[in-house]
Task: structure prediction
Amino acid sequence: MSDGSIHALPGTGEGVGYSHPLDPDRVDTRHGPILYLDDITVSFDGFKALNALSLTIERGELRCIIGPNGAGKTTMMDVITGKTRPDAGTAFFGQTFDLTRLPETEIARLGIGRKFQKPTVFESHTVFENLELAMKTDKRVRPTLFARLSSGQRELIARTLQTIRLAGSEHRLAGSLSHGQKQWLEIGMLLMQEPELILLDEPVAGMTDAETARTAELILELAGTHSVVVVEHDMDFVGKIARTVTVLHEGSVLAEGSMSAVQADERVIEVYLGR
Result:
């Protein structure tokens, strides 16, 4: 395991890029969105968690998903990441990757990263080591990874530390971080996997106001370089980051548009926002 120093060291691999997470030809979006869901239906014991759900996400887009409990938000993310197979419908990552036919590990390798509501970091390891462990490497060579870290890989870690607001904290044990900082570290661990599409489930739950504000800045910075889907109940937070908001209800899209548009939608007010 490395010592967490950020200065460049000689390595054996090529440098790792950051602005372009994957070869743009790998996930083909030249003629369409990066994520395409069409008529997705998922039933559990007769209950339709998703009911002919259709949704598209463009490359570099930031999309907020809101809706009452039971609206299908978690099931939608389960379908996208391969955890749940739909009963019917189509789910494509770019033009060529059929998500309904791929295992979870392959979907993650292709460039879809998901962060759950509760942070899961290696608390007995340092911040730097958490990012290092999350890096796309051959995990069978962990004992010799320190010698193999290239200057490009160290630069990727350094940039990620800056992005997630933890530069200068790389030597701290993850277990000593605040709740918000652990959330940022887990987002950083996702970034080390070089995802094209990032799914964030209630990223500001339990955060202080200051942490929430910094998380909004972080997510806005990620958009463009990555496509980002945020599922969130905190409407004040959604208002800070929202570009397009999709409202789910009973497994389908109820409304979609700007934050002001969905807030004024009588159907959304009735089933979710209240008066």
Summary: Confidence is low (pLDDT under 50) at residues 2-25. The domain at 35-273 is CATH 3.40.50.300 (Rossmann fold). Residues 85 and 100 are 6 Å apart (CA to CA).
